[in-house]
Amino acid sequence: MLAGRTVPLLLVAAFVLAVCHDAPTDADLGSPLASISDAVHGANGNAHFYFLPPMVPNPTPTGTFDGTQSPVIAICEWANEDCVGDPLAEFTTGTTGGAIQVDLVAESYGVPWHAGDYDLDVNAVYRISVLVGVQELGHADVQPASNG
Q1: Residue 116: exposed, middle, or buried by beta-carbon count in 10 A (0-12, 13-18, 19+)?
Q2: Contact criterion met (CB below 8 Å) for 51 and 97
């Protein structure tokens, strides 16, 4: 759920994440703008998963990056603690234009989500979930803005 704030959703938003081994260090990055669950945000976040800028400030991950994972990023409208209907977008690793790309130098996974290609409701909340298999590594709840 949103914590009484909205997060502008750019027409082309890049979602970048890192999957590491070992527990993170305690980094005080301030309050998230929306419900975010990863190693830094949220009490139930996966200790080896980090959202990265531009979604959040740069974390200080520890451990060794694992570029062998095959995450899935699913985006759905979120209401009453559940997805409303089928996902609006789903990204997997691969070579197609919208696929999740692994950057071994930057030690991150990333995908461009062209939010302008979707009929998003500025009054709705959307959940971005990152999964490996059936395990959720993290999520972020966002609300688009009409001036994004």
Answers
A1: middle
A2: no
Read off the pLDDT of residues 54-101 as tens digits, 9 standing for 90 and up.
888 999 887 899 999 999 999 999 998 899 999 999 999 876 667 899
Tell me the pLDDT band of 43, cut-offs 50, 70 and 90.
confident
Map tokens 């976040």 to a residue: 45
Question: 16: closest CA among 61, 70, 53?
Answer: 53
**Cα 120 to the center of its chain, rounded Å:** 17
Please, are residues 52 and 59 in contact by the beta-carbon 8 Å criterion?
A: yes
CB 138, CB 86: distance < 8 Å: no
CB 42 within 8 A of CB 3: no
Q: What is the reported pTM?
A: 0.74
